[in-house]
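Q: Okay, next protein. This is Lipid/polyisoprenoid-binding YceI-like domain-containing protein from Glutamicibacter ardleyensis. I've checked the sequence twice, so it should be correct. Can you predict the 3D structure?
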Amino acid sequence: MIGVEEKDLKMTSTATSPLTAGTWNLDASHSEIGFSVRHAGVSKVRGSFEEFDATLNIGQSLAESSVEATVQIGSINTKDANRDGHLKSGDFFNAEEFPTMTFKSTEVKGDDEEFVLVGELTLRGVTKQVEFKAELGGQVVDAFGATRAGFFASTTISRKEFGITWNAALEAGGVLVSDKVKIEIDASFVLPTAE
């Protein structure tokens, strides 16, 4: 979701959740965590993480709902093995010492279609508050009888705030890798059927 302003955030703590209350499990095969960063000031490098998990807890209202997610840093994929290896190294993520990135929401504000998910992002041992602008795709029962919900969320972080400072100067001025990294998430969740 792009362009939501604070005045548009209408949800109160008593607003009824648009989703069925319960604990929803991530359907990783229909979900994606992607990122992009400007390279050499003229183009963008895009990548994704192939291994991740999340749990969505829906309460009676969105304000009573939360999400927790864990991403395996070693699963990074930018379609270049050498670059992936560099990103896993101590210059960037230091995946050997910090194998996961985690997110735990602390607040949900907005309405039931467009909202802001506030939470703590931990990357390379550093925890910072971030805000994801998010959209609810809705809730449906699919052809196999499973109850599904979908979300899209995005945020932009400063990698330097998480201790990822490696860079290289360009002859024409500027640096090789931008500080700002955009993260985009498409997530599909499934509500387990009652036994």
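A: Here is a summary of the prediction. The radius of gyration is 18 Å. The mean pLDDT is 86.
Q: Noted. On to the next one.
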